[in-house]
Specification:
This protein has 198 residues and is mainly α. Helix content is 43%, strand content 8%. It has eight helices and seven strands; from the N terminus they run H-H-E-E-H-H-H-E-E-E-E-H-H-E-H.
Length: 198
C-alpha cells in the first residue's frame, strides 16, 4: 500500500472540521425570551411608583442637615463631627494609634479655645504630642468647607464630648480666630507652631 493511500485512509477516519452552519435558534427559546421581556416591561409599568427618599435606609434629606430641629434650629455639631471627623477620630473620639490623636481629655481640645478652632480651620501636619504620645498624621483644613457657625458647633461638640468638660465656643469667637489668621495658607506644623497658641 502506497503512502498516498495510507494518508487517504487516515484522513477518512478523521472527523470533519467543525463549521458554523445556518442553524436557527429554536422557536421555544425565542418564545421564552420574548415572554420574559414582555413580562418585565409589564411588571415595571404596573409596579412603578414614586419612591420616597426614606425608602432605602429610612433616612431623608433632613437627617443629613447640619441644622437640626432637635437642637432648636442651631447647627448640629454632632452631625458635622459624624460627617467630617469620625473617619479619622472614630465615633469614640479615641483616634487611631500613631496617626490620628484622641480627642478625649486632650490638652489641645480642652485648653485654650483658640487651639481647637485654629486646628479645625487650618489643619495640622507633622508631629503632635497628645497625652504623652506622638502622632504624625495629616488633618485637613476646613476653613473653606465650614462656616463660622459650623466650626463653632463642632468645636463645642468635641469640647463637651469624649469625657471632656470644657466651655463651648460661638461663631463670633471663630470669626475672630479666622480673621486673626486670614493670611495663613498652610496647615499648622504640629507642636512646633501650635505651642505658641497655648
Amino acid at each position: 500500500m502506497s503512502d498516498s493511500s495510507k494518508r487517504t485512509e487516515a484522513q477518512q477516519r478523521e472527523m470533519p472540521e467543525p463549521y458554523e452552519g445556518n442553524r436557527p435558534v429554536p422557536w421555544l427559546v425565542l418564545i421564552l425570551v420574548g415572554a420574559a421581556f414582555v413580562w418585565s416591561l409589564a411588571y415595571i409599568g404596573i409596579t412603578h411608583q414614586a419612591v420616597p427618599a426614606s425608602y432605602g435606609d429610612r433616612r431623608g434629606a433632613a437627617d443629613f442637615a447640619v441644622i437640626s430641629a432637635s437642637t432648636g434650629g442651631v447647627v448640629d455639631g454632632a452631625q458635622i463631627y459624624a460627617t467630617q471627623c469620625l473617619a479619622c477620630h472614630q465615633a469614640s473620639g479615641a483616634g487611631l494609634p500613631g496617626v490620628f490623636p484622641p480627642l478625649g481629655e486632650s490638652e489641645w481640645v480642652t485648653g485654650n479655645a483658640a487651639l481647637p478652632i485654629q486646628i479645625v480651620l487650618h489643619g495640622v501636619t507633622g508631629d503632635l504630642v497628645v497625652n504623652g504620645t506622638t502622632y504624625n498624621g495629616l488633618m485637613p483644613t476646613f476653613k473653606d468647607k465650614l462656616d463660622d457657625a459650623e466650626v463653632a458647633a463642632v468645636v463645642t461638640y468635641i469640647r463637651h464630648s469624649f469625657g471632656n468638660d470644657a466651655d463651648g465656643v460661638d461663631a463670633a469667637a471663630v470669626a475672630a480666630q479666622r480673621e486673626a489668621t486670614v493670611a495663613r495658607t498652610s496647615p499648622w506644623n504640629g507642636d512646633a507652631e501650635l505651642q505658641t497658641l497655648k
